[in-house]
Amino acid sequence: MPNSLNLSQIRLIATDMDGTLTLSNKFTALLLQTFEDLKANGIKVLIVTGRSAGWVSSIAHYLPIVGAIAENGGLFYSYSNDPMYLTSIPDIITHRQQLAAIFDYLKRQFPKIQESTDNRFRITDWTFDVAGLSLDEIKTLADLSQERGWGFTYSNVQCHIKPQGQDKAVGLLKVLQEHFPEVSREQVVTVGDSPNDESLFDARYFPFSVGVANVSHYLDTLQHKPTYITLGAEAEGFCELTRMILAADVTDVTDSCS
Fold first, then answer.
1. Is 129:116 a contact under the CB 8 Å cutoff?
2. Rounded CA gap, 131 and 114, in Å?
3. Of the given ranges (40-44, 77-81, 167-171), which has the lowest mean pLDDT?
4. Which terminus of the chain, N or C, has fewer Cβ atoms within 10 Å?
């Protein structure tokens, strides 16, 4: 990153989870300590993930973070408040039935796709495993979904059938406006690793975005690319970024006191 970038202005890190905060699919002791260090320095961490509402409600409660957005912009969970719906769904039962119907349609076209095990804990979207699917097959699945009025995205873990217009950037902007109005977009860094993070890399919404090194697998398919890419992959890349932010924050404090 260029020396001209003022990392000391960062007050909130909005980050993907799988492949960005995890290392070999697990949280590490270093990551948890990094969360504590950021909190001690007044820097908020907000997770923005495609994982289900059921999973994310627990994550928001147990980790030292200010909250988490689930289902790629579907819902927001904070430590103390009731969940905030970021996508309007008048009738959840009908919505789930409609999602099941479009999944059944896709499965008739591609019998090998398998519903994800966490789908039973979801509200706004429907997921199936990305393993075993080629990029061409994923594109066809996306086109079939969109032809029938549904949005579609995928990560290194899952494919998501979702309401059109539901994505991470839209959900994050709503949460920032409602819960963190004191934080400007210039004080936010967005972090991710895969195509379902693409809206977080869109400079029209967030001028400072970072991809951990494993995002390089998808650069050819991304219309919006991260502003910077870390040397480290997965959680090591996230911790690399936070070390730079914390070091800049300390330098800024030292300079102001000298």
1. yes
2. 9
3. 77-81
4. C
